[in-house]
Every structure is written in structure tokens, then in C-alpha cells.
Amino acid sequence: MPNRQRSIPLRLTVLAAALGLAAPAAAEITVSPNLSVMYDVTSVDSDTYDYGDTIDRFRRFRPGLTVGVDGEWALKLEHDLADRSAPEASLQVNLGEGDMLRIGQFKQPFLMEDAISDKQTPFLEQSLAGTLSLGRRLGVGLERVRPDWTLAGSLIGQRLDGTQERVGVTSRATRVLWRDGDALLHVGGSLAWENNEFGSFRVNSRPENYFATRSLVDTGTLADVDTVGRGGLEAVWLNGPFSVQGELVAVHATRETGTGTGFDGSGGSLVLGWSPTGHRRGYSKGVLGAPATEGRQAVELFARLSTLDLNDGAVRGGRETNASLGVAWYPIDHVRVMANWIHVDSDRRGVSDDPSIASLRLQIVF
Length: 366
What we know:
The protein has helices at about 10-20, 110-115, and strands at about 30-45, 55-70, 75-80, 90-95, 100-105, 135-145, 150-155, 165-180, 185-195, 200, 205, 215-220, 220-225, 225-240, 240-255, 265-275, 280-285, 285-290, 300-310, 315-330, 335-350, 350-355, 355-365. By secondary structure, it is mainly β. It has one domain: Porin (Beta Barrel), CATH 2.40.160. The strands form four sheets. A 16-stranded antiparallel barrel has the order 1-2-3-4-5-6-7-8-9-14-15-16-19-20-21-23.
């Protein structure tokens, strides 16, 4: 079987060339390179399973390029050289009045947590609930952004590397219910549905750390899955240096088995944040972000509780609850230092594993 991962650069080149044909011959073209570098050190205090020695290596080394044409078109390309994360290769068309069309492979609109760039996330990794996000997939999407609400939807397919062989639709909507200066209350929801062409489905999750490689909750491969549906609810409260961010998500897979049984899983997360330096988290287009440091050092403190339940009838994927503490320090522009401590409480098929994980990250972003 050919190595699909090796074909990614070729596919990116072909897609970029095809999308580039859309640019008019005589136009004002802007070229903006970017780079995201993350170097992590992780130590696990093992419980039932042995996670080995302290690990230090690049978590991400992701160069990218955005080519804009007259402020109306933008070709965005990114590829991670340190990890097998899905590349970005998309054409963005500005339709005016806050409307945007996207074509190619891009991060699909489902879950608030997934919409936050990993350049600006409060913790090193997504919560357990983020396991149920869609990530980057090939698709055609439309986004509408207004001062107090957003609406995004996409027709989606597989990834450039041929994985996630499902087609469907996904959407996310947000609304600011209350705003008073910089303070606001935001609510939102997500829905997604996929036709499962490949016929199997699986959900598993590492304990909120990429280098803790064992998945403590795992449905295993579920055969004869016909469709996969997902739904999410979200809320955000921001007031100066304080923030509260919460999300609930559920997944339902229908199975073409003799008994007609399906699978239901669920997860959730709650994040509390405070900046002792008085910085406010960014908020734009229904998405949270990092604070604007404006040349000053910034510090953020976070606490998170997250859960994932993959037990449903005969499917004994396990349950996990993680309690985490995090700190993010912005010493100078383009540099962030992060530290996380995670306590894991998991049980799968009668086996309990409750490790503690400490991580440190140096992040450089341009």
C-alpha cells in the first residue's frame, strides 16, 4: 500500500497551482510568510501504564504562506514538518460585507475550541472534548460575520492524505447576547452530519498531551457505521482580565448491524482564566484568542476541567476526567512560554489509570 503521507506535498502543489489560476493577471499581490514553532518538554508520573522517560522534541514546526490578490482573494498554504497534522491549502474569497467563501482544505466550522488557533490556545493541547472536532478537511464553506453574530457552514469530504473518508455537512453559529464595553456574553452551537463511505468509525483520545502517546479512552474500530452525527453547545463570558469558556459536545454513529444498535459518546470542558497583568483575552468573529500584549509582558493563568465518555452498551470505550492548571507568559512579541499540569482520572474495561502530566512549551510565532 503506498504511503499516503508522502503524497501530501505533491497534492498541495497541484491544489495550489489549480487555485492560483483564479488570480487575475494584472493585480496587486501581497505575500505574507508565517511560521509556528513549538518545542515541548513532557514528564509523566505514571500510574498503571509506563509512559517512559521525559520527552523533549518539536511539537510543531509549521511554515506557511498567504498570497493575497487585491484584498479580495487569498491563497493560504501551511504544512507541519514536525507532525502528521493536516496541512492547510485553501482559497479564500472575500464576498464583501463580512461574507467569506473558502475552497480547499481548511479547519471546518465545528466546536469553539477547534476554531481557536493553536498559536493562541490557553493550554498546550485541546481538551478531551476537542477529540470530537472535525479539524481540517477538504470542503467548500461559506462564513458570514456580523458585529454580534457569525454563521458558518461547509460541505466536507476527506483529507488531502485520503483519511477521514466521509462526506457531509458541518456548521457553527455564534451570538453575542450582551456587551458592555470590553465585557461580553457569547453563546453558540455546532451541528455536523457525515455519510460514512468507509464503513468504520473510531474515537480515541490521548490524555491532553501529544507526547503521552497512550490513548486511555478508545472505542476501538466500530464496523458497519452508516452515518455520524455531532452536536455542540458553547458559551463564553469575558470581563477584563477574567474569562469563562465552556463547551458540551455529543456524537452519534448509526450502525448497520443485525441488532441495529448505534453508538453515543459525549464530552465537555470548562476553562476559567485570569490575567494578573490585567490583559484581556482577544475576541473576534466569535472566536477567543490570545491577549494583545502591546509591547508589555503578559501573564495568563488558567484552570480546566474536561471529560470524555465513550461507554455505550457493548462499546466500552471508557471514561476520562482531567483536571488541569496552566500558565502562559508572553515575555516579548512573537514569543510565548507555557506550562501545564494535568491530573488524569480514567477507567476503561475495569482498568483504572490516573497519571499526572507536567509539560513546558516554548512557542515562537511569526
